[in-house]
Amino acid sequence: MIRDLTDTTTTGISKTLVRLRNEVGAMALGRVLTLVVVVDDTDAGNAIDVANQASRQHPCRIIVVISGDRRGKNRLDAQIRLGGDAGASEIVVLRLYGALANHGPSVVVPLLLPDSPIVAWWPGEAPADVGRDPIGAMAQRRITDAAEHRSPRHMLKKRAATYRPGDTDLAWTRLTRWRGLLAAALDQPPYEPITGAVVSGAPDSPSSDLLAAWLHRRLKVPVHRVSTPRGSGISAVRLERKSGPIDLVRPGDTVATLSQNGQPDRRISLPRRELPECLADELRRLDPDETYEEALLHGLDALQPVRLTAAAAARAGKAPDPAESRRLAARLSRDESAQEASAMISAPPAPEHAETAQVHAATVRKLAGKRTSREKQTAKRRTKVSADGASAGTKTGTTGTSTAPTKSTPTKSTAKKTTAKKTTAKKAAAKKTAGTRKATARKGTARKAMS
């Protein structure tokens, strides 16, 4: 539901909000904060869409403040969005004209949610000191984006000079995955100290500068910045250590490779973070970001100046080679595809007279065609080992056959012992029979005498 209000007041906007919520049956408020978006008219549409997507994770009231023509008549136009047009939030778009454009906070205050946090966001160019800005002063969190300025590196220095607890920048939010992967790589053996670091990134990428500043503060080592073409963002990070470097390289926009000594090369999904995801990430916490503060205030000034391009640094062995990383990513992709491929073989049905052996042979040929070069080499080594084992078994069997008759043929002494045992047994049986006959004869004689 969208309702437009022309030449209205904040009181009229509040009453319309209550009436519309009653009409759609949403009288109970479930908003967790108020998000104030300060934007120009040209970027308002995109900013509203981004804020709407971010509000799916954080239901809030979104107040968009757009400064119009300051030379015209004082006027306040508003647009209210509820229900399906606002997702999990309610959106109030304010357009200020004339002298009213200089009094944005006075228009915003009556529309704030009571007893809820306030977050201010500047999607485009923000004031030099957002903490002293009237809207920024009333907010607990102030979100800017240095990448939207003409000179991002200069703007970062301004942010450091005017920093106040609660300030943050989306250039820092875009580093979350990079920082997580580098920290995870350091948790793997060998556990050796880092002696230096190199960050390859575009000169217009404030995220590259913040990443280098963060590494310097955390690792306490010199960090060098290497320049890549404009618009490429962060391309690679190298962490030097005694046993060999740790290289995290993103040659494209979505996939990176991680190489380190003692570990297999890995292909990792590392896409560029979208703006709604970054904004939703910042809305998760309303307390000051101490890690960002440390990197911004104490890490930027200690960075080494940019003196080399990425290509020159790669030739000198000081930075990873993006071309080599592309080849590595392609090889790892082929290996993963071969490992994940199904064992099912697509082939025309065998003729009716085909025998089992023929079908088995055709299947083996099909599978052999799908094997990678590495799998073929492994199969050859296995075949060679099996052949060597079979040869050794044949030799052992031949030797055993020649000695078996000797072991199974009885010797002369054994035959004599066996014959002697048989003779003794026969004599014992004969003696027993003779004794039995004598006893029987005696019994018969005694009976005759008694009779």
Describe the structure in your own words.
This protein has 451 residues and is α/β, with parallel strands linked by helices. The protein folds into two domains: 2-170; 173-334, no CATH class. It is 46% helix and 17% strand. It has 15 helices and 14 strands. It has helices at residues 10-24, 44-54, 104-108, 134-137, 152-161, 170-173, 176-186, 206-219, 275-282, 290-298, 310-315, 322-340, 356-370, 373-408, 412-450; strands at residues 2-5, 33-39, 60-67, 75-81, 90-97, 118-121, 141-144, 167-169, 196-201, 223-227, 234-240, 246-249, 255-259, 266-269. It has an eight-stranded mixed beta sheet with strand order 1-4-5-3-2-6-7-8, sandwiched between helices. A hairpin with a 5-residue loop joins strand 11 (234-240) and strand 12. Mean pLDDT is 82; it is low at 397-412.
